[in-house]
Amino acid sequence: MSAPNTDAAALHPLEIQSLEWVNRLLSGQMSSAETEDLARWRAQSPEHEAAFAGAIRFRRAVRAAALETREQVARTAGAPQSARLPPPQPTSAQGVIAARRPSISRRTLIGGGVAASLVGYAALRSSNDLWPTVTGEHPDYRVAKGQRRSLDIARGVSAELNTDTRAALRRTPKGAELQLLSGEAAISADAPIVIKAARGETTMAAGRVNIRQDGGSVCVTCLEGEVRVSRDDRAVTLTGGRQVTYDRRGLSAISSIDPGVVGAWLKGQIVFRDVPLQQVVEEINRYRRGKIVLVDPALARRPVFGVFQISRIDGALDQVRRLTGAQITALPGGLVLLS
User: pTM to 2 decimals?
Assistant: First the structure.
């Protein structure tokens, strides 16, 4: 697989000028005369105003990426005991091709001073393994990004913890209890097991289940056998190929899914079938250090069909480029812009 295209086509002069104006505006050092010059520049044509608005969106996207990374770093810690993912099997991808306009080149961004806004992001990124957890929870197991870990929970019960996951193991009079604090786990059982996530509980006597927790939302998928999912005073029973989610509003309706797609990560893959690019980017961000940011909102809705190899997750960027026509700009600190 070829390396991602990190040098997009040259910018239009208006885009360069707009980035310079935004940098000067956000520096807090513009004089009254410069402020008037900016107003006149924007009023020259609709194209000038559109370029200025685009530059503002870009800076907001970078700031949002930095803030989200700050929160993510505060929730996670390193996991030196985690094992590397097994080598995946070769596969192929198919997708929808669509032409896109040229994006901001790395050379122009850095030369124009926009890269200065990424300093905070890079500092947060480099301190990822040193940042303490602030949740007050004390997981027994932490799995870092891009890694996976196998657990023997009890006789006849095992689990696989996916990327960026925290979990705790408890012994109760009724047997073992796994508490998923964040991330994703697949549990196989030939004996009773209780899995707690958020304010819900999943019980299983025999079978396989995949549980994923993103914040206060939990998704439970029965891969094989039968599981019972309860939250508050409601409970449902799932069989193979059935899924339910829950959050503060309670349990959702049961839906049918493809277990092969949900459990693809166990084979070292991520599978997408007609999934919006925004969701694809969010999923890829779970597995790679740094941050991918969609600069163009219209690009977020592009449908993606494809199979991505987790062990070569950075290669997924080139797949995204070929599948959607997006332009890729790689910046320091693992930040990647899609436009």
Answer: 0.63
